[in-house]
Each structure stands twice: as structure tokens, then as C-alpha cells.
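Q: Could you write out the predicted structure for this multi-component system? I'm mainly interested in how the pieces pack against one another.
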Amino acid sequence: MPLLEVDKDKCIGCGGCVEACPLGALSLVDDMAVVNDKCTACGACLLACPVHALNLPDTRPRKSSENLAAYKGVWIWMEQFHGRTGSVSIEMLGQGRKLADTRKVALTACVLGHHVEHIAKEAISFGADRVFLADDESLADYTTAPYASTLISLIREYKPEIFLLGASARGRDLAGSVASVLYTGLTADCTGLEIDPENDLLLQTRPAFGGNIMATIICRDHRPQMATVRHRVFEMPVADDKRQGQVISIKAAMKPEQITARVIDSILEKDEVNLADARIIVAGGRGVGGPAGFETIHKLAVVLGGAVGSSRGAVDAGWISYAHQVGQTGRTVRPDLYIACGISGQIQHLAGMKTSKVIIAINKNPDAPIFNVAHYGIAGDLFQILPALTEQFRKKLRH
Amino acid sequence: MNIIVCIKQVPGVTDVKINPETNTLIREGVSSIINPFDMYAIEEGLRIKEKFGGKVKVISLGPPQAINALREAVGMGADEAISLSDRAFAGSDSWATAYALALAIKKTGDFNIILCGKQAIDGDTGQVGPGIASQLGITQLTYVFKIVKLEPESGMITVERLLEEGREIVEAKLPVLLTVVKDINQPRGATLYHLRRAAKLLIPVWTAGDLPEADLSKLGLKGSPTQVIKISSPPKREGALDMIKADSIEQSAAILADKIIAEKIL
């Protein structure tokens, strides 16, 4: 049975779905959309159909909901590195609090690490009612198995309904492992999380196909409903040091001799490369012309207190290191301000930055695609514009 | 070293355009490519083989035409290929994909290293690699951008992983599953010799029936815990493009700076 159903009474043969299908799974036969077995049920065609003739039927058997009712509560994994909490974890406490209030359940934070008691307190101040604290030497550095096994045994025992992790490298590494063992649904990189008032399910919305469409995903028959959450999407909650909560100490699930991976060393990037956390990014592309051109970019970034990003073109040319690359094969960023300098705006680059709050494009070519996603633009020579802009910000931000 | 590389065929992104009216993807002609991150995985597998000997086997789960991606990988130098293709696998989410791939890998026999790209550019989840590792019960090392040391005798591997704060050096015991990032290598092109071999190579197509251990209820759409229930347009950004054009560059810069300061984001 095909994954996609075409309602032959509704289809008007407009061909919109044929164009929209990224896989070539649709064609028109006798003015009617026909689907072949290339279809992966991605849903990209559904939006394109003006008459709602396309449908992805749900062919799964329904499971009993009795066991699901035993799952209660919203849990957050508190990511920490060398004792510092990841900001995405704090943002999730804010959104998690809202979800927990809607479901009228408790919000629980899971803190794993060594010498991390202070994070338990921090989690409570930002909204957690309860903290599971696994403070153990074997958890000092993040490695998958000891973290995953500790969380898996906690989840099996306490049965949360919803479990959220940050969509960071570690968060995705951990979530993929935990969901796999528990046989439950995991939605990557969510930008929207809500409770469906009709059935209390978690509606998980994420960008798909490079951000061209948004997909809303549910996990109906498995628990917990798991999602990784994109950084800087949900608002940072305000800390309340007077909030009270319960801290429950738990044991790490693996003995040190069972652990097969070990962190030997960490090499930290300079702050200016930490694109994921940056509120402001000044990025350069091919138009920057060479490594020396990035000096001009860097100067503006310094004045604005921002990080330096780049397009793939500049990285491939060897002008700047890969750690700076924004886009599909680099990092996805969502700063408050993204200044694209000499970046034409290929779709792969746009996929990595177009959800930035404010985008400025500076490019010689006024028809460059980067201007399609920008809020502000100046067409011209970046080597004239950037120094002038740097000077203006230097003057105006001094007060 | 027995090396397995998991690859995915994805839509060729370069010829995707956005229809500004409907905000959907327009594709001029339909081409498919090997997921770019998987190209780095194939290359890394070939390099390990060249250094330590052994075999590189590529596996792909997908519709029948995904076999072309496997031929391409053989054209680069992979020794063997297996296609997992069956209607029973259709509609698999990342859980069901990892489940089927893990069973297929088990069936192929001994392996030391499994390589995957860090994520696929169409799904962008990065969940299948960790999923396979968990199903097989082996160590996973994700976001690897360098293999620092590989010692077949002692069965140890040391890699550098690329994380938000920087790099991390991790040592682990084989067998491992690695997911690799772009910077790990420069994938080679196909060679005539290998292309000829690829054209002739018999690539077995495994269906669900070829995975005797498989719990059929865990395959494909019906085995997938997640379900897409709605597709929508991304929220439109407010306001159109404000092109700033003053008499002099200084003036333009001053106007832009004022507008950005007024956005209250600095």
C-alpha cells in the first residue's frame, strides 16, 4: 500500500505536489497525481496541494493506552560541562515548567556529573520541583553509556511522560541512545513544544528540508515522548532563589570497569568561535576575498561583542577554520543578530541561519539570494561598508 | 579491520529552489546523491582499510533506487554493498531505520568499526547512528573529526570529537560506531577501475524476510514510534527587506547602525 493517498475525487491535476516532492515520487497521469514507491511519507507535498487531496493515512495498529497512563511528569536533562550548565537546559526548564503546568504534573531535572550539587539548586531556582542528582566520579566527563544507562534506569523506574534534552552534540548523542533502548519516539531539534488540548499529547514541531517546511510530530503509543530542543528558541526563565524543591540522590548505573570510552583531553575553542551560544554573529563568505578580509569581519564582531561565522565557500578556500562554518554542513545558528558579509546566500547557508532574529546582508550583488531572507540590506563593497559600520557602532554604543 | 559504512540516499540539494508563492521546494529534474556526511564516512572507511587491511561494506536502507548510491560507494572503492529495500521498511522513522540497519549489520557478521555521517541533510536528526550503536550494544563516538590513533592489536581507538565548546579526545575499545563530521577528510572521486567493478557487482537486496531476527511489528511505518501529523509553512518573518541607500557610505552605515540599535538586540 502506498504511504501517500491521493483522493481522486478532489485532485485537480494541478501538479503542485509533483513540483513539491523532493524525491520524485509523484507524477501526473491522465491529469491525476500518482504516487510511486519512492515516497517516504515526508509530507512535503501536503502543503502544496490547494484542494487537500493528499493524505498520509495512519496504518499503525493502536496500542492500549492503559500502560501509557502510568507515565507522568515532565523531565529535563541538565547538560553541564565542567560544572557549568548549558543555557539550552535552562531554557528547557522554562518551557518544561509551562508544559508541566498544562499537564498539572511536576517538573523534574536530571543532573548527572561530578561535583554538580550546585546545578541541582540552580534547576530548582529556574522551575524544577524535583531533581534527580547522580553525582559520581564515573560521570565527571560525559560519555554516552554511563549517562544513558543511568537515565534509562531512572526512566524505567519513575516513568516520565515527557523527556526533553538540548539539541547539542551531547544532547543528541544521549537522546538517540536512550530512545533506542527504550523503544520510544524521539523528535530531533524541536523549535515548538505544546500540549494538544484534545488528547494531551506533546506536539513537537521542527523544521524539515532545510527549514522550508515545519513538521509537527507526535509519539502516540510510546513513552516517554522524547525530543531534543533547539538552542535559543525558548525564553530564558527568571531564577527565583527562594523556590523550594526536592533533591533525590541516585547512583550511577555503571561501574567504572564497565565503561569502555574515556575522555582523555578537551581542547576548548576561543569564545569567539562558540557560534551556538553567540547572540551576535558577523559572518563572511567568498566576497571577503581571503584570510586577511576576515580581519575586517573580526573588527566588527569585536565591537558588537559577537562571534565570527563563515560560509562554506570561505572555509573550503582555507580562509578560516571549519569551526566557524554556518550552514547545512556546518552549524545551525539562531542569534539575535546575523550580519552576512559577502555571502551570496546559497540554500545550504540559509538553512543554517535564516531563523536568526535580525539579519543584515551586505553584498555587492543586489540580487544575491541572501537579501531574500534579510531584514536590512546594503548593496555595495563590504570593505567600505564594514569599516564605516564598525565606526558607527563604536561611536553609538559607547554611551 | 571489518568496516561497515551506513549510507543514505538523499535528494540532491543543489537543485532545490523555493517557490516564493507556496514556500515549497521546487526541483528541476530529480537527482539523488549520497548524503554528503556519508561521503566522509565512506572515505574514512577506505582510509582505515588502506592502512590496516580488511574490507569496507556499505549498507543502505531505502527505496529500490538507493542501490545507485551503493554503486557510487563501490565506485569509490568499497568492497561490498547490501541494499535493504522492502515495502515493509517504508515510512521508517529514525528508530525503525536504526533497528533494521542494526539487524542487517548483525547478519553480515563480524565488524570492528561502523561509520555513519553525523546526520542526513534531509532528515537532520543525527539519531540513526546512536540508535544502531545502542541496538548492537556497542560504544558510540559521535561528531568525530579525526581518528587520532587506531591499534588493531590492542583493539583501541582514539578520536577527536567536535563539540560546541571545542574538541574532545576520547579513547574507546573496539568495536565502535563512529559518526563523522565534514572536516575529517576529503572524499575521493570514483575511479574507472572501481566504477567498472561497481557496474558488475551483484548487490544483494535484503527484504524484511532476510532479517530472521526482526520483529516485524517494529519495522517501517507501523514500527515507528513517531508520526508526522501536520506540515506547515515556517512562520513568516515580519516586515520586508529594508534596503538602505543613502548618499554616502558613512550615511548608510549610520542609518543602519541606528536601526539595529532601535531593534534593542545589542
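A: Regarding packing and overall arrangement: Chain B touches chain A through 102 residues (CB under 8 Å).
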